[in-house]
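Key result, reporting period 2: structure in, sequence out.
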């Protein structure tokens, strides 16, 4: 699929809303650039509340980074949410979705302050799902949406390949899940590879754009490898290939976040 733009992006209402945000004065803003600015704050908060940080990442460092990232997200949301909540009155669900996202961020902040990082992460996960549906419904092409669509089947594969306590190999049900989810994941990933990436709205320089291309190619190769090993009977090879599809995807997604001053890695 080709990358879409919001029809009439230079309409007075949109430009007026965008001009309320920092950095938009005296230039032609785009709606995807402002969603991208939100994601630069959102992605670090999502990563900092995840359950699998670096082994060298102490609980105290994790909590400090999560608090810092959540504060940045709240600051960005205050600007972005206020500017965009009323942008599409012709979509009766637009304002409701922005209200839902605001409540999800508030809930995540409260959960994090209560020491419930995993629950805060779960609350934040739903934010990208809500915005993906909102943009899709309104014909707003956004590069990260195909990645978000890929995330669910990818996680299903990784979960099925992760051995539970007391288990030394995959069960027949695990293999069925991996095969079924892989078909969905490959279809979703095709949307990523066929979507033209415009680095400008995301503030990518040439080096970061090249890094993204390499990681997208690596993810494609990982999915192909899993497909190939599934034709055989080597369970450990299948399990390792299934687990291996997460790393290049996570690294590619992290490129869209602003981790300046944070120790958080992975997702």
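The corresponding designed sequence is given below.
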């Amino acid at each position: 699929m080709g990358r879409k733009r919001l029809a009439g992006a230079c309409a007075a209402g949109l430009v007026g809303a965008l001009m309320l945000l920092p950095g938009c004065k005296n230039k032609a803003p785009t709606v995807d650039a402002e969603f991208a600015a939100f994601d630069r704050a959102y992605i670090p908060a999502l990563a900092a509340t995840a359950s699998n940080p670096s082994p060298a990442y102490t609980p105290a460092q994790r909590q400090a980074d999560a608090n810092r990232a959540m504060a940045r997200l709240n600051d960005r949301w205050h600007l972005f949410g206020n500017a965009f909540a009323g942008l599409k009155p012709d979509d009766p669900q637009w304002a409701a979705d922005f209200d839902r996202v605001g409540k999800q961020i508030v809930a995540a902040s409260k959960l994090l302050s209560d020491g419930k990082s995993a629950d805060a992460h779960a609350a934040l996960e739903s934010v990208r799902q809500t915005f993906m549906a909102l943009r899709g419904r309104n014909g707003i092409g956004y590069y990260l949406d195909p990645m978000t669509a890929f995330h669910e089947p990818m996680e299903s594969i990784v979960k099925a390949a992760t051995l539970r306590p007391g288990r030394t190999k995959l069960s027949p049900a695990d293999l069925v899940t991996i095969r079924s989810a892989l078909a969905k994941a490959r279809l979703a990933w095709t949307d990523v590879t066929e979507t033209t990436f415009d680095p400008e709205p995301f503030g990518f320089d040439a080096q970061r754009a090249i890094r993204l291309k390499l990681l997208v190619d690596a993810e494609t190769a990982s999915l192909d490898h899993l497909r190939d090993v599934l034709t055989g009977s080597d369970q450990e090879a299948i399990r390792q290939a299934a687990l291996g599809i997460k790393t290049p995807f996570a690294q590619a997604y992290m490129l869209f976040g602003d981790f300046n001053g944070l120790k958080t890695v992975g997702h």
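Residues 1-29 have pLDDT under 50 and may be disordered. The radius of gyration is 19 Å. This case is discussed further under Risks and Mitigation.
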